[in-house]
Structures are given as C-alpha cells and as structure tokens.
Amino acid sequence: MPSRTVSAPRVPRYASRPDRRLPDAELQRDAAGDVIEEEDENEHQGRGEEDDDGEDDDSDATGPAPSNEPSEQPLASTASMTIKGSLRDWDKSLESSQALRSNITDATVSYAELFSTISGAKGNAMDTAFRDMIDATFEAQLRREAMKRIADQVAKGEAVYDAVGAYERQVQEGLEAYKAKTTRQKYLHHEGYKTFKERVWEAHTDEAMPPLADFIDIEDGDEPDDDDDFTAGAVRQEYKCPLTMALLKDPVTSSVCHHSYSKEAILDYITQARNRGESAKCPRSGCTKVISPSTLKDDRDLAKRVATHKRRMELAEGNKRTQAAEIID
Fold first, then answer.
1. Using an 8 Å Cβ cutoff, are 136 and 97 in contact?
2. Where are the beta strands (DSSP E) in the chain?
3. So what's the pLDDT on residue 206?
4. Which residues have a Cβ under 8 Å from the Cβ of 147 and sit 6 or more positions away?
5. 296-316 confidence digits (pLDDT tens)
6. Which residues contact 206 (CB under 8 A, 6 or more apart)?
C-alpha cells in the first residue's frame, strides 16, 4: 500500500490570540476536534471578475468580503486584581527610589565632611546620580498614574479597550514632555534636590548656601524668575529650638508654618497653653500661626542636618583647642 504524505496542519492566525473571539464564519471544528480553515470559494469576490468581453461582470457581486480581523474585546473586570498588584509594585518602587535618594545624600554628605569639599568630578558624579534618581522617580510615578487611570475605569464598570496601548501612550506622552524640559525646569523646584544641595553645602562650610539657581545654568527656554524663592538670597538654616535655645533634639516641623522645634519642648509648650485655655501659637519670633500635636511631623531629614552641624561645631572647637595648645607651646 503506497504511503500517504500527511502535511502538517496550518496554524490559523488567530491561534496565537486566545484573548480575542474567533469569528464563527472563519473556523470550524470537525468531530475529531481538528481546526479546519474554511476555504474561500471565490478568491476574486468583492473585486468582480472580468468577463469574456474584457468588461467587469457584476452579476455575481455580493459586496465587500467580511473582515477577517477579530473584534477588539474590552478589558475583563477580573483584571482589576492584576492591576491592583501592579499598583502595589509601583508603590514599592517609589519607596525604593526615596531610600536610594536618601542614601546618595548621606554618602555625599559624608564625603563632604571628610574632605571639607564636594567640588570636582566626585561632586559632579554624586549630583548627577541624585538627578538620575529624580528622573527615575518621575517615570515610576508616571507609570503608576497611567495604571491607576485604567484601574479607576475598570472600577467604574467602564469598557476599557486596548488597555496596553492606552497605558503606553499616556506614559510616552508624559516622558516626552518631561524630556523636553530644561534642567532648571526639572530640578529647580524639586524640594528633594533643594534639600540635597543644602545638606551637602552645610557639611563642608558654615556659610549660608547661595540660591539654588546659582547651581543650575540658564538654558534656552528658561525665563527669568527674580521673585522666585529659589533665586532669592542665601538663607541660613536655624538649628536651635526657639524654646530651649539649644540644638534641636528629636526635631519636629509644623505643617502650618514650617518652623521646627525640639519634640519634647514643643509638646510641653502646647500642653501648658491648653491648660490655660489658650491656643498654642508658634514660639518662633514673628510667627502667629496656631500649632497642635496633629500639625507636628517628625523631621528625619532635619535630624540628620542637626547631627552634621553638631559634628562640624565639635570639629571646629577641637581645631581651636589644638591651635591654642600649639601657640602656648
């Protein structure tokens, strides 16, 4: 008996797209479960055929052939759990970014304390590393926002089509807008970058830091902003508590007026005011804002800056004693 050549079954183009409905007119299953692709009876259908006289014969035309493309399906409501998981992942990424920025700051401050400078290639490298983390954090926030937008639509019961495409378009538009900004537009108003520069500056000098704008060159697209706080004159950080007049201990900062105090001292101050039936006003000279325990937040960053300032004071005092001893000798 002659052998029969069996050709491998042709995989339908829809087989790799299980998430989309297969048109019933396109595919059928036989009794054995094999997929049989329905043959097109007339490959020229919709185009018309040329008759013997060379003219189009429209007698058999039945209109345009139906599209072979499967219809787009909306995102299933069950996808909400997956989206929530992605949001949690982005939250963790943002927390990691914050921790990395803090580590870069601490390392740069330590270098500045050790060598009493942060200029040169090392300083530029650390500054670039911090800016890179700001950029990475922006992208993480952008992607989280795009994912959150889809999650909100699903939660409202809205039909979300082409979720991946919508997500990527929103992210791409945001990244392009961010990349088009100048260096000043990216970093001049970033509180984290301002704090980074202040801490590094204070680690190697007792002088007040110049305006942040002095560290960032003007580029095409930047506009003068003489009234901006970031271009104002140098301001010296106050490290003493207005109540104890000693260096801040366990500093807390008011969310109302942004003044800082030693935690134990300010809480005792508020309690005494309440015992007198009075509102506790900020003890900082010239400030009239009312404060309360709920408006006070632990300020870890300020605590680090106080520690740096204290080390510089102790180092300066030690140098004075050494110089005095050398003079006596």
1. yes
2. 27-29, 35-37, 49-50, 56-57, 251-254, 260-262, 296-298
3. 75
4. 83, 86, 87, 90, 167
5. 999 998 998 898 888 878 877
6. 312, 316
Q: 157 near 79, Cβ under 8 Å?
A: no
Q: What is the C-alpha R_g of the chain?
A: 34
* Range ranked top by mean pLDDT from 18-32, 51-65, 77-91, 171-185: 171-185
Cα–Cα distance for residue pair 244/284, rounded to 1 Å: 11
Q: What angle do CA 88, 154, 173 make, to 5 degrees?
A: 70
Q: Is 135 found in the same domain as 87? A: yes
d(C-alpha 9, C-alpha 214), whole Å:
71
**Residue among 184, 112, 171, 186 nearest 141 (CA):** 171
- Spatial distance between the Cα atoms of 217 and 127, rounded to a whole number of angstroms: 14
High-pLDDT (> 90) share of the chain, %: 42
Same domain, 88 and 215: yes
- Residue closest to 305 by CA, chosen among 235, 210, 200, 207: 200
> What tens digit of pLDDT does each residue of 256-290 get?
999 999 999 999 999 999 999 999 999 999 999 99
Quick count: other Cβ atoms within 10 Å of Cβ 287?
A: 15
Encode pLDDT of 176-229 as tens digits. Answer: 999 999 999 999 999 999 999 988 888 877 788 889 999 999 998 888 764 455
Q: Are residues 77 and 209 in the same domain?
A: yes
CA angle (145, 148, 153) in 5-degree steps: 130
CA atoms within 13 A on the CB side of 287: 16
Q: Tell me the C-alpha distance between 64 and 49, whole Å.
A: 14
Task: Indicate whether 263 and 328 sit together in one domain.
Answer: yes
Instruction: Phi first, then psi: give them for residue 116, nearest 5 degrees.
Output: 55, 25
Assigned domain for 91 exists:
yes
Query: Exposed/middle/buried for 130, CB within 10 Å: 0-12, 13-18, 19+?
Result: buried
Does residue 160 belong to any structural domain of this protein?
yes
Determine the structural domain holding residue 327 and report its residue range: 238-329
